[in-house]
Design brief:
The protein is α/β, with parallel strands linked by helices. About 40% of the residues lie in helices and about 15% in strands. It contains 14 helices and twelve strands. It is globular and about 60 Å long.
Length: about 425
């Protein structure tokens, strides 16, 4: 772990290790604590329908199992349910034959309040940082409490996207480590749906601070959208997300462990590699400890009919939607309009790819090395190099929150850092090319 990048001094690192050894956050305690949950959909726009549908479904899973409404905090842009493209105004579905999952969802932070800063303030209980925003609610947890965090959106190596900015792995880890030292939880569990989501925890998460995380993908691959809906012309869910939620809908969560759910989701998500990180002993706890109330409510199981997943890599969703719409276009004018939009998308993707290629060439000044960097994929380890480089590319070349395909090309910056190219050299190339 790069201690300097995470903003942790050597003394703080030693303190973390001390607390992890002597403060048994993960052991049973005679004083029962509260359960808290934070649900985040970090995108906006109709083609990202699935992210808010996933988040709404997660909210319904918790409420059906008796999770107290006043201890669920949601962040969601909320531009889907009443979108002009929605054929069922006010309703959102997460399965082609599923019920409305939007009804009853209490949204605490919407629109421009859905930011990394708000998210970190919410999970760490910092009311001052969200004063005047949304509901102002935060997780008011203590040393005996369990926290469940579900995040759904786009991602890239070492970052998660929000509607207008990004959350970097170092920022998340600083917050988690501070929460541990401040005794803000007993056990905390993350379920993360995003491309390269494993990179948020791999190489970073201490295994002994009572945090357990599962992710939709490993540090170097895409997550997948699923359930294309011809009526809505968009994807309704994401494979990893619908697999864990449809499992929770039908299982007795008081008998199923987190590890059992992980193994089920891992086996059924055959599009990407579902991963687990952190303190894996927590996975022996029953799912109810994080997705239900203290007493555990067992509702009637919901078992939906199996339908084709129609899975597609997250980065290809817009392209896939346009291709499907062109095949079903009823008039020449409609087909022509969609074709123009499709061609513009392909042109945009090529421009992004070539921009990254030119950055690599300028930074390396080595043709063979440039080819290797653009073809291979290496796991992110050198966060100290990569994070400022990623921020520079976001600032000078392409806004990562607006250009999803730019996220798919961040692997090249990872490779540059892992090849030992200094961050200053890479940033200079970025500024010269894009600035």
């Amino acid at each position: 772990m790069c201690i300097c990048l995470l903003g942790i001094t050597l003394a703080q690192d030693n303190a973390l290790r001390y607390f992890a050894r002597y403060e048994h956050h993960g052991t049973k305690n005679s004083q029962a604590g509260d359960h808290w949950a934070v649900i985040v959909a970090g995108s906006n726009g109709w083609y990202n329908y699935r992210h808010q549908a996933d988040a709404c479904h997660a909210y319904q899973v918790l409420r059906r199992h008796g999770f107290p409404e006043d201890r669920i905090i949601t962040l969601m842009y909320d531009d889907i349910a009443n979108n002009q493209n929605n054929p069922t105004p006010g309703k959102v579905i997460n399965h082609p034959l599923g019920a409305d999952v939007y009804a009853g969802v209490k949204i605490d932070y919407r629109g421009e309040d859905v930011t990394p800063e708000t998210f970190l303030a919410v999970i760490s209980g910092d009311e001052s940082r969200v004063a005047g925003d949304g509901s102002g609610r935060v997780v008011k947890s203590g040393p005996n409490d369990h926290i469940f965090i579900n995040f759904v959106d786009h991602g890239a190596p070492g970052l998660l996207a929000f509607p207008s900015s990004e959350l970097h792995a170092s920022e998340l880890m600083r917050t988690i480590n501070k929460m541990f030292m401040d005794r803000r939880y007993k056990q905390m569990v993350f379920y993360i749906e995003a491309c390269e989501s494993g990179s948020m925890f791999s190489q970073l998460l201490y295994p002994n601070i009572s945090v357990y995380a599962t992710t939709a993908a490993n540090p170097m691959e895409s997550s997948y959208a699923c359930y294309y809906d011809q009526q809505r012309n968009t994807y309704l869910g994401d494979v990893y997300s619908v697999k864990w939620m449809e499992d929770s809908d039908k299982e007795d969560l008081g008998k199923e462990s987190l590890h059992m759910q992980y193994e089920i989701v891992k086996s059924e998500t055959n599009t990407s590699h579902v991963m687990e990180y952190g303190n894996k002993t927590i996975s022996t706890e029953v799912v109810a400890e994080f997705q239900s109330d203290t007493e555990h409510t067992k509702p009637e199981p919901i078992v939906l009919p199996k339908v084709p997943l129609d899975a597609v890599p997250s980065g290809d969703v817009r392209q896939s939607i346009l291709q499907r719409r062109m095949l079903r276009a009823e008039t020449d004018a409609e087909k022509h309009s969609l074709l123009v939009e499709y061609e513009n998308l392909i042109k945009e993707r090529e421009e992004i790819r070539m921009t990254m290629h030119h950055v690599v060439v300028m930074a390396t000044k080595d043709h063979l090395m440039s080819q290797r960097i653009m073809v291979n994929r290496r796991e992110l380890v050198n966060f100290a190099c990569y994070e400022p480089v990623a921020k520079a590319f976001d600032e000078h070349c392409y806004d990562l929150s607006q250009y999803e395909y730019a996220l798919r090309n961040m692997y090249a910056l990872v490779n540059l850092c892992e090849e030992g190219v200094p961050s200053a050299v890479i940033m200079d190339a970025i500024v010269q090319l894009c600035g």
